[in-house]
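Appendix C reproduces, verbatim, an entry submitted by the partner laboratory led by Prof. M.T., so that reviewers can inspect both the input and the predicted structure.
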Amino acid sequence: MAVYGNQDPPFSEDQSLMPIDPYGIAKMTVEQDIRQAHEQFGLRYNIVRPHNVVGIYQNMWDKYRNAISIFIRRALEGEDIIVYGDGEQTRAFSDIEYCMEPFLKLISGYDGETFNIGADKYFTINEMAHKIKDLSPLKSINIVHGDKRHEAVHAYCSHDKAKNMLDFKDDTDIDTLINKMYNWATKQKPRSIKNMEYEVTKNMYTEWKN
C-alpha cells in the first residue's frame, strides 16, 4: 500500500504510484522489476498489495515495524505506548487469516494483475493504542505521543477488485484479533529487542535512537 503515498483513500489499483518514503519507493521498484522481468523473460506474475497485516506469531521484538505488536509488547512490559505524531493517522488493520486464500488463487490464476488485499474498516492509531491499553491490567501505562513520522496520514484501500475477481472476503474483527494477539503474547518467552546500528542519525525518530 505504501506505493500509493499520500493520495486520497481508499486507494484503488488504478491509481498512480506516488510513494513518499524509502519503504514505498522500494516496493514500487520491486513492482517495476517484476514487470520488466515479464517483458524481457516472459515471467508470469501478479502483484498483491496487502496492508497492515497482523496476527499471532508476528514479531513483537522489532521496534521499527508492526505497530500493533509493538503496542502489545510495551503494554505487557509495563511501558508507555508510544504513538507517532498526533495519532490521528488512519489505517485498516488486516487479519492474516483472510489474506492467504487470495495468494493461493494467484499462484495458478490470472497474469499481470494487481490486487489490494486487506480489511475495509479503518481506525486511527489513537483508537488502536487505547484498545491495547484497555487490555492491560497495569493502570500505570500511558499513551504518549512521539515524533511525527514522514508518512501518509490517511491510508487504506478499496478491495472491490479482489472481491469481484478472487471472491475475496475479509472478516477481520479488530477486537477479537487484538485479544487473540494479546493472549498469545502473554505466553511468549522474553526476547531481546532488535536494535540497529545507524550510519546516519540526522532527523532520526527519537524512539528509534533509544
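The chain has one domain: 46-192. Additional entries are available on request from the coordinating office.
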